[in-house]
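pinned: reference chain
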Amino acid sequence: MGHDLGIDKHRWYASRSRMSPTLVRSTGEESTAEGVFVGSSEMAALMRATDWSATPLGPVTGWPQSLRAAVRLMLTSRFPMWLGWGEQLTFFYNDAYGAMTLGAKHPGALGQPFSVIWREIWSELAPRIERVLSTGIATWDESLLLFLERSGYPEETYHTFSYSPVHDDGGVIRGNFCVVTEETERVIGERRLALLKQLAEQLTSANTTSEVCSALSRALATDARDIPFSLSYLVNGASNGAGKLALASRTGIAADHPALAVDGGASVAAVPLVDAVIGDGIAPPLASATGASRSVSCAGSVGGSCSAESAVGASGG
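pinned: its structure tokens
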């Protein structure tokens, strides 16, 4: 049951109109591109310049009030958001989402079917969207791993987001609204710090070269996501290039891999410093003998690099 709070509604709306003229518009003005795509943001300007009659949504003047309101809400928010409407989930997004997530897909993603824009992760997202559209129940994912192709290659990314249903003026679900934040830097940063902590703990009790190499292998084997493989060689011998290479430890790579095919009796001079890669793209063990005992480590993903490190231990293994 309603209550009369003694508010002069006409005076209140008139006051709001004077305070913020872009927020209170006539019905006719709200149905135009200028009335729907409000503000001075990049995406508002792009939407005003788009020929929506060439999309499944048709001219802006024919859009339901619910769609126009959702687009205005998205455009005026500084938090990353996107909206998909209709059978193809025609794609809208704001400046924050374009800058944070789309990469090279911006600005071509505007007005395209959502399944086309994110075809590389559609199998992950489709069940979530289907649930929202069919049941009206919102989803929630925290730090979900998605391999996006927004920079010309598959990229490991993490996102926290929620999908919510958007209804048309008749109460039927017609769209999907997403509020999202990317957490890639945080997730990967925390993971790498944990690996460094693990390495520090393993090295605490290491007193010899052999123990150091074993500790390194144990630490790196705990999580291969940042360092899929590693090779550690010891260089023993004189500084005139006559030093010998000896494999001290390895992780994430088979014992018969070509990258390990360096004769244990080969001199350092026989293994030149180069930037080339071999076999399936893994860099070979490289070294430069400048002291009696040095370690040479190769670590990384495909196309990783090798570097000569300072002497470890006293004996040189």
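why pinned: The mean pLDDT is 80. The radius of gyration is 30 Å.
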